[in-house]
């Protein structure tokens, strides 16, 4: 599938839309999810124009995982959460709604997961 340069995350990367930024480096950007599934729900996106994980370069994929590690540690610590859920959806058929590759980090506990 060709990359949609006007998707919401591409617009955030270009600075056309605001976000609550948590972290940025050469390859990735992390910010708060606008409709959080739990307090501290964060997103990590690649700066590559990639729709899904399959479209990322090996370097881009590695950078996303490294930033996801950083963010998961940080949000768990900030909220004193016992753990976190990392999610990554590929394709509308899997439930992906924004066609720019991204990882979710949701601080949570087993108890919260069982309750949903
Ligand atoms: P997906 O379902 O594609 O895996 O997740 C997309 C995520 O992006 C959803 O959790 C949704 O709340 C979030 N989202 C959608 N639009 C915006 C936006 O404009 N800003 C931010 N920060 N998050 C967004």
Automatic annotation (TrEMBL):
Short motif (Histidine triad motif): ranges: 100-104
Active-site residues, as the UniProt record annotates them: 102 (tele-amp-histidine intermediate)
GO biological process: one example: nucleotide metabolic process
HIT domain location: 8-115
Molecular function per GO: catalytic activity
Protein name: Histidine triad (HIT) family protein
